[in-house]
Amino acid sequence: MQADLSPVIAATTQWLLRSYPHDGGPVGASLAEAQARQAVTVAAWLRYPTATDAALLTMAGPGGSGRLDWLVGSEASSADVADHAWRSWVDEVVASWAACLLTATAAAAQAVAHLTECEHTGGLTFDFRRLVSPDDRDRQAAVLLRHPDLLAPVANLHRAALLERLAQGWSNAA
User: Fold this and answer.
1) Which of 6, 36, 64, 135 has the greatest number of CB atoms lying within 10 Å of its CB?
2) Exposure pattern of 24-57 as b/e (b: 16+ CB <10 Å)?
3) Cα dihedral angle (90, 94, 95, 97), rounded to 10 degrees?
4) Whole-angstrom distance, CA of residue 35 vs CA of residue 75
5) Which of 108, 90, 65 is nearest to 5 (CA)?
């Protein structure tokens, strides 16, 4: 069974970056992408903590960005087949959880701490500093991406499930 979450992580990161764009040139783009990718990676690993969970997601598909696009008012044109292809790999729950993590550094730190028990880390330690403790340059590069009011519609979709996951740990995960 395939346990690769990279298509979901890439597509959901891309959706966040397109929905909440940066305005800081090439360096700002890189910093915003790093923060979005870290948030999405943590959210995906929390949502699908085992190889079996990830394989089931690959078989069933993540659902796409349709509801998210409607929610933020950026519905994609159905005429662009290439645009639709990557959008089909966007996971709504992962996007919502990532939005929560981007707007609440305490929750992000708690989520990263939970990853020590996740199969995807393979016992390795990962650096999610840009997510957990962003500096001024990080914050400036991702002003829209970290704005609690702007992300609220997306974050509120599945915030309760994220908070429940963080409270219960891995014992009842997925």
Assistant:
1) 36
2) beeebeebbbbbbbbbbbbbbbbbbbbeebbbeb
3) 180
4) 24
5) 90
Q: How far is CA 34 from CA 46, 132, 134, 144, in A?
A: 18, 12, 11, 14
The residues spanned by each domain of the chain are 6-168
From first to last of its 174 residues, the chain has per-residue pLDDT tens of 346 899 999 999 999 999 999 877 899 999 999 999 999 999 999 999 988 999 899 889 899 999 999 999 876 555 566 677 899 999 999 999 999 999 999 999 999 998 877 788 777 778 999 999 999 999 999 999 999 999 999 999 999 999 999 998 655 444
Enter the tokens of residue 8. 């979901």
Pair 101, 107: CB distance under 8 Å: yes
> What token pair was written down for 140?
């400036």
Residue 165, CA distances (Å) to 36, 63, 128, 160 in order: 20, 21, 19, 9
